[in-house]
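Quick check before the chapter quiz. The format below is the same one you will see on the exam, so make sure you can read both the input and the output lines.
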Amino acid sequence: MHYVAFPTSYDWQQIFSKWKVPFEIIILQKQDILVLNDPLKFFINTDGVLTTIKKYGSNHSAISRLNLPNTLITTSLYDNNKNPHYEVYSLTNACIIVLSKNNIKKNTILYKYLQLLESYSLKSQLIVTESLITMFMQRSVKRRLVVFLLLLSKYVGKTSVTGIKLNCYLTHNYLAQALCTSRVTITKCISELKKEFLVVKKGIITIHSPINLTYYVLDT
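Here is the expected output.
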């Protein structure tokens, strides 16, 4: 029996090259979109922060998960009829390794690696899921938006002289899809939040004070 310890990160390219397993590398820039359309493949996010958007036809969608570095973008999300389907949106620059499940299943040691990665990914996702549930429990889109921005500040936020700068470009269209609302509503909410809590410059959002923004959710 082989035991595989799971550290905080692996050099996946080196591992797969060593075992001569064919794989593909996909480089995503900020705002790039990857459509998950092959349930017979593993997608490993080796670097970057991604969100998975669940699409219900052309007019309805919602964020279903936040994918952190060194996690598996789970293919258990797929439906046999591919309705709904899923799109991965890159909040930061990212690198994704794609490989066939059939190739991995032939190698018991590598398959163990992937099983451990899946377990680690699920544990990581459980932490984020609590915040997503809290977000969708909010009574208004504005409150949903606030909770989402606070969540992003934990993973893509950087301290600046004016507050916490979200190191990603958030379009109103993306926020509307993620929060299951319209672009017009998002524009209105951001305009209202800019009066006291946010600075928006060239699509980059800076939160003056995450604490004050948290109190906004608690008090309204």
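If your answer matched, good. Residues 138-219 form a domain with the Arc Repressor Mutant, subunit A fold (CATH 1.10.10.10).
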